[in-house]
From TrEMBL:
<feature type="domain" description="Terpene synthase N-terminal">
    <location>
        <begin position="7"/>
        <end position="136"/>
    </location>
</feature>
<dbReference type="GO" id="GO:0003824">
    <property type="term" value="F:catalytic activity"/>
</dbReference>
<dbReference type="Pfam" id="PF01397">
    <property type="entry name" value="Terpene_synth"/>
</dbReference>
<keyword id="KW-0460">Magnesium</keyword>
<dbReference type="InterPro" id="IPR036965">
    <property type="entry name" value="Terpene_synth_N_sf"/>
</dbReference>
<dbReference type="InterPro" id="IPR001906">
    <property type="entry name" value="Terpene_synth_N"/>
</dbReference>
<protein>
    <submittedName>
        <fullName>Alpha-humulene/(-)-(E)-beta-caryophyllene synthase</fullName>
    </submittedName>
</protein>
<dbReference type="InterPro" id="IPR008930">
    <property type="entry name" value="Terpenoid_cyclase/PrenylTrfase"/>
</dbReference>
<dbReference type="InterPro" id="IPR050148">
    <property type="entry name" value="Terpene_synthase-like"/>
</dbReference>
Amino acid sequence: MEVPKESSIKKLEETVKYMLDDGSMEPLDILQLIDDIHQLGLGYRFRESTKCAINKIKCSEKVKEKMHNSIHTCSLYFTLLRQHGYEISADIFENFKDHNGNFKESLSQDVVGMLSLYEASHFAYNGEKILDEARKIHKYETQRNAGKY
């Protein structure tokens, strides 16, 4: 396998920085790109670009609208803001609870959303019960699917 040349790596980095700054790109796609960059362990290379992108997304009405309907978007938004030191309330997950105060049963069908919610639960502050509940639901669902319940 051939190792990429330094110039190729620089070009790829510039492309990613351009994508993070691209005003025509959907905010959710930028959030996903930032998450992918972090999962690859490359977040340190794009700190400034990521910070600028998150600042723009925080003000995006598109993301706020999407968060009301998508547990994945809401969780990803929450996780990335907490990871980058922004204050964000766990109350944004209240929209996904039913009239009894439990997470809606329909969420269990959204595997990506539930995984995102579980990841977000690891950024809970002490006393954020809604995120503690999310972690417990994930544990229960995992054990139930493994046949333990």
